[in-house]
Amino acid sequence: MSQATMTVIPKTMKAAVLTELKSPLIVAEITMPAQLEIGQVLVKIHFSGICGSQLGEIDGAKGEDKYLPHLLGHEASGTVTAIGPGVRHVRPGDRVVLHWRKGPGIEAEPPVYHWEGKRVNAGWVTTFNEYAVVSENRVTAIPADSNLEVAALFGCAVTTGFGVVQNNAKVQIGESVVVFGAGGIGLSIVQAASLVSAYPIIAVDMFDNKLQLATQMGATHIINSRNGDARQMILDITGNAGVDVFIDNTGQPAIIEMGYQITKPQGRVTLVGVPRKGSNINIYSLPLHFGKGLSGSHGGEANPQTDIPRYLGLFRNGKLPLTPLITDTYSLDEINTAVSDMRSGKIAGRCMISFDASAS
Question: Which prosthetic group or cofactor does it need (predicted)?
Fold first, then answer.
């Protein structure tokens, strides 16, 4: 008998469903698949972060959504309850981080759920649900005694933020860094820049609560872009020579263009935020031929198999204070409130959806 059939898969579970773009999520009981297919892993979710990417999905930032209705979420912690045929990297009982970047193992067929007689789509990982059927290559095992609320951050915020600094921008000791947009990923970028001894580290945002948290994460200077000309305020700090590294988390063309203009001739611009479909940037490209860099980041090019254990080790040994990054916790029934609070700037850091508070 396979391990998949030894554990009973719940017939239904509660999940947040995106049924229509620019509309609230519907929290409903949906029907689970009857069995696990090759490479699939059944995980009980404990904590899920909400990333700005999900706000973009809800808003249709990339254009038409052909998969409605579908589930959401790509950053969580959980416990494996069953595995499908062929799974070798995790086993039932393992504590795991769920992530959207590919790790080792099988990339399985995405699961299909049902609700009110309709098919509900899901990708290789979703996390706004009590249980998740995910691909083996979207889960990484962690020590059983891990702090599961903090562990959820390794699904995206921390691994992306640190990867941006290490793999994309390749920040060097003493280089100046501007982080434009201080959400969950932006704050992780600030923290990573601090760990590599960048200076100055300038966090820019529209909300003072986010900027105050950025100083806890390692920002040496903060700028509220509502209070004046952000470009000039940055140059007042760095000098007119400009910035070594400019990292944009907003996806707004005007900010990207400004960052490109104020970086040094050998400086680098890294784009983490993705412009909405149809929004293009205008740049004078000649500096690209003489050493200036402009590149996009895909999750910081993180490798979950190696990066999650490294960063988790830093946290467990007191070298990476991540607890302050989690500023708000909601239940699944409150998910639309959480989304609204993210949009309004009420949430300073990363907010968590808690499915099992006792798991922490």
Answer: Zn(2+)
Please compute the mean of the pLDDT values over residues 76-83 and round it to a whole number. 98
| Sequence-distant (≥ 6) Cβ neighbours of residue 324 within 8 angstroms | 213, 216, 217, 349
Q: Give the pLDDT confidence of 81-117 residue by residue, as tens digits.
A: 999 999 999 999 999 999 999 999 999 999 999 999 9
User: 130 and 194 share a domain?
Assistant: no
Same-domain check for residues 164 and 131: no
Radius of gyration of the chain (CA): 21
> Considering the chain, what percentage of its residues have pLDDT values greater than 90?
92
Domain that holds residue 206: 157-299
Q: Is the pLDDT of residue 360 over 70?
A: no
Query: Predicted confidence band at 220 (pLDDT cuts at 50, 70, 90)?
Result: very high
| Dihedral over Cα of 249, 252, 257, 258: its sign | negative
Is residue 249 a contact partner of residue 275, using CB atoms and an 8 Å limit?
A: no
pLDDT by residue (tens digit) across 343-355?
A: 999 999 999 999 9
Distance of CA 43 to CAs 11, 94, 150, 175, Å? 14, 9, 17, 42
Contact 347, 327 (CB under 8 A): yes
Q: How many whole angstroms separate alpha carbon 199 and alpha carbon 245?
A: 11
285 and 336 together in one domain = no
Q: Please state, in angstroms and rounded to a whole number, the distance separating the CA atoms of residues 266 and 293.
A: 7
Q: Is residue 306 part of a domain?
A: no
d(CA 186, CA 157): 8
Least confident window among 136-145, 176-185, 274-283: 274-283
**Nearest alpha carbon to residue 325 among 241, 213, 229:** 213
Listed in order, strand segments (DSSP E) in 228-320 are 243-248, 263-271, 293-296
CA distance 279 to 286: 22
> How is residue 86 written in tokens?
């062929």
In a domain, 189, yes or no: yes
What is the tally of structural domains in the chain? 2
Within this chain, do residues 67 and 118 fall inside the same structural domain, yes or no? yes
